[in-house]
Amino acid sequence: MSGEFTSIDDARERLGRVGYLADEPASLVSFLAARLGKPVLVEGPAGVGKTELAKAVSRATGRRMIRLQCYEGLDEAKALYEWNYRKQLLRIQTEAADTGWQEVKDDIFGEEFMLARPLLNAIIAEEPVVLLIDEIDKTDQEFEALLLEVLSDFQISIPELGVVEARTRPLVLLTSNNSRELTEALKRRCLYLWLDYPTIERELEIVHLHAPELDQAVARKLVEVIHMVRSLDLKKPPSIAESIDWARALLLLGAEDVDQAVLERTMSIIVKHRTDLDLVAERVGVKLGDGLFGRQAG
Amino acid sequence: MASSGGRRGNPALYGGVPGAGGPAGMAPRLLEFADELRREGVAVGTSELLDAFEALDAVSWTSQEDFREALATTLAKSQEDRHVLDVLFDRFFFRAVEREALEQGLAEERFRGGEQLDLDALRERIRDAIRAGSDGEMRDLARLAIAAFGRQGEGSGVIGVDVQRIRRTLGLKGEKPGSELPDPDSVPRDRLQEFERHVRRELERQMIERTQALPPAKPLRELDRALPSNPAQDLSEVHRTVAQLKKRLASHGREHRGRRRSWQVDVRRTMRASLQTGGVPLDLRYRPRRPRRPELYVLCDVSTSVTSASVFFLSVLHALHDQFRKLRSFVFVERISEVTDVFERERSFAAVSRRIATDAGVADVSGYTDYGRVWLEFLGKVVDDLDPRSTVIVLGDARTNGREPHAQVFGQVAERAGRMFWINPEPRLYWNYGDSVMAAYEPFCDGVFECWTTKQLETFVNAMAEHRTTV
Fold it and tell me: Hey, where are the domains in chain B?
């Protein structure tokens, strides 16, 4: 089950088989990305599975994944390549004094003395890869400019060596939490995919996929509670990963119902801010406690 | 595909039965669609269009969803763009189909026999169809419903009114969000909206058939987007601008990146690093530069003379609090009072404005602003905390109601603080007329701005981020 996606349905099905339930836009974009050879810019709130999508694509297509985690101050030495000074120095030192500069120069600026960083790795890889550039919005604008060459032509210019072109076309996914507006130039080169929190039904499927032993009625209620929590104005709404964690925790605790007591005991799994905790306990906990929900399920 | 008919002013936009505009086929239609997108402010470049064509080659054209998604992923590069595209897509292709039908003289067969319909049975069937979410069935039933409704008297002529009337006649209710009591009569909200869309569409179609003309297409802003009229959206706009301000200020300390040479070398760490290279200090280590941390003091006038602007001011303040941790905020009328903790405790804007209005302790004795007194008190409160790293922003109209402006005290504040900005909601033309004493304060400020829209706020943000004389 490796190789490229052949159609949208194929993409959806194979992503599903590796544990990622993709909706229509996500499967279409994953299919188009390989077909058009275009990078994909994935945006959406934190914890909706943007990074997970890249991992799933890598698993489903059998491509190796190369990941570049972005942060403030990331520069080309960490993203593209760097000369291995130490090795160069050793090389020079081991040469006797009688070798000419020209030979040494030709020698030490070769691939052997280069430390390839993720972007260069993705370009020179023999087999097709998935390149994940995670949280691109954390970098500075200058870094985006650096990416343009890689993303549009899949090549990197190294002054000492010339232009390195991609042997195979990597599948590139960029994720962003939308904390900063990305430049038009970058957006223009990408396909755009907005991932949002899933609907109740989808999230139920996802939870079921990852915690299959959990009772359906409990799972449904859990997801409904999660959606209620998300509708509050929280500092950090619970992500999909956290609902899965919560489902697993309930499974371990052997909970048979999601009521106020269970919620208050396990709330810290889905809510991670003190003020948020108070808010959830006050708004959601009370609702669960008065039994409207409880009787329904029981 | 480059020779499109779209250059001729796109007749589809202006109603009436358009002539056959340009060559037939998909490409010209797509270009027209792109044209409409551009008119709504979505930046669609040639490269995006080429991508769209390429993407359409790869997906099947027969599935509407795939077709739309393929266009969306290549043409719309943000969530707002996506929203615009969805609305336009529906309208554009609906109109394209209708136009074609008009030209060909096709008319859909009206549903006859609406008289025999049992309204209760119909109601039941519609409810089931909505719950099942079957697209085709909903459409058929929408036509049935219109027929049944027509029996009870003619429509109002306004489509939106008719849609709601039909919905009420059918007794359709949306589920309340997070409802605990499952109402047997209610149906999922989004599906209901879908049904309403079908009804609306069928009504439109009938109207087009009746009048033999397409209604003119209005620009979206009047239709669906309704941007600045909605205060909540305005608020988010303010938040967006302020977030930008934060980003620009946060990168303040980093502007030296290109001038690394002037950094101070950390000898100890350099020596340590040189051990790896045989004692040759190849890799210089520098002392970290501390980025300048923005320290903000915001003073906000909440007196009656700026009532109209104060909602805007408060929302700016609210947004600032969302973004900056080192921020102290004050509101004043005749005297000043600190409201930093109000903003820190309350998250929702409504709650904040309510609290400030009721018990923020603004010593509002006479209801008249006394700027001079405000400066004296402000200086007294923060005199020890102000330093060259701090920025003071005043939001106010500088109308002192004839009292002493104490410009010298204001000057002292400005002297202690690194930077001083004034945002005035009044048009520049009115400054220094009547009791406005802007001129007295202006020389002490690093910048004064006329600002009462988010657009002007953006100007201020840009100016403030660029202002670097006193670092």
Answer: 6-104, 114-225, 256-291, 295-466
